[in-house]
Amino acid sequence: KTALPGDTDATLAPIVKWLKSHDTAKAVLSGYHDSRGNKAVNEELAKNRAKTVREMLKTAGIDEARIEMRKPESIDGGGDLAEARRVEVSVE
Question: Which residues pair with 88 in a beta bridge?
């Protein structure tokens, strides 16, 4: 699935606030997926989840030039594969 959890807006709010107050900083988005199934399909899902987060940041007023997308990565969760299916946002 590429749908994000219902609390994504609240999760991103502090990041958006920080980015707005630090106009030279950029958001770095990394999509992750578990190792089960077809790798290409999983990478596309991870990429699409990250694109959804990018759109949310843009809608919140963050310029697309300040958003960097990183290549999707495969990772196994700690027993719960849902942990591996995520988007991480860092600020640089």
Answer: 30
CA separation for the pair 54, 57 (Å, rounded): 5
Q: What is the pLDDT of residues 32-41, one digit of tens each?
A: 888 888 999 9
Residue 5 above 90 pLDDT? no
Name the maximum alpha-carbon separation found in the chain. 41
Report how far residue 48's alpha carbon sits from residue 30's, in angstroms, rounded to the nearest whole number.
11
Cα separation, 92 vs 47, in Å, equals: 20
Q: Where are the beta strands (DSSP E) in 15-54?
A: 27-33
- Inter-residue contact 70 to 29 (CB < 8 Å): yes
Contact 66, 25 (CB under 8 A): yes
